[in-house]
Amino acid sequence: MKRIWDVSRVLAPGMPAWPGDRPFERGWTSRLEDGAPCNVGHFTMSCHAGTHLDAPFHFALTGATAEKAPLNCCVGPCAVLPLERLAEAAGEERVLIRSGGRCPTAAQVDALPGLRLLGTDAWSVDPEADASLAVHHALWRRGAVILEGLDLEAVPDGRYELIALPLRLAGMDGAPVRALLREI
Known about the structure:
By secondary structure, the protein is mainly beta. The protein has one domain: Putative cyclase (Glucose Oxidase, domain 1, 3-Layer(bba) Sandwich). Helix content is 9%, strand content 31%. The chain has three helices and ten strands. The chain has helices at residues 71-74, 106-110, 134-141, and strands at 4-6, 25-30, 40-44, 52-54, 75-82, 94-98, 117-120, 145-148, 158-166, 174-183. Strands 4-8-7-6-5-9-10 form a seven-stranded mixed beta barrel. It has a two-stranded antiparallel sheet with strand order 2-3. Helix 2 links the parallel strand 6 (94-98) and strand 7 (117-120).
C-alpha cells in the first residue's frame, strides 16, 4: 500500500493565529456526561486558521470566493521541496515549499510557467509586513490556487499525489483544507 502523509495542521485551542485574526475556539452544545443523548461540539475560527486555501476574494474585490476554488488544481501530482530550490520546479503544476521562515517572490512564481497551485508551510505566501501581497496577486493572475499553513516536517523532498480539498464555504475569502500527500 502506498504511504499517505496528512500535511494539515491540527486545529486546536492555542494554535497560532495571524496577528489580529480570530483564534480557533471550541466548545460543546451538548455532552453525554451532562445527560444528553449525544455529544455535539461547535467551533469558531478564521477561514485562514491552520491549513487553508486563500480564495482570490481574500485580496481582490473581484476575486472568486472559496466555493469556486478550481478543484482540478487541488488534486494531482506535486513536488515538495525547499524554497531555495523552487526554480527546480519549473515543469510542475503543483508545488509545496518548505519556507524556512521565508516567502517566495513574485519573480520566482512568475518563473514557473505551468504552476497551478503553490503551497507553503508558512502562514502566508507573502511576508506579514508586505501589504502589497505581490505573490498572492502573481498567483491570482495565472489562476493558481494558494495553500498556506501546511505541515511538511515529516515529508521527504520528492514527488507525490496531492489531495487538498477546501470546505465549500459560500461567499468566503478562504477555507480550511485537509491536505494529504500520497506516494506515487
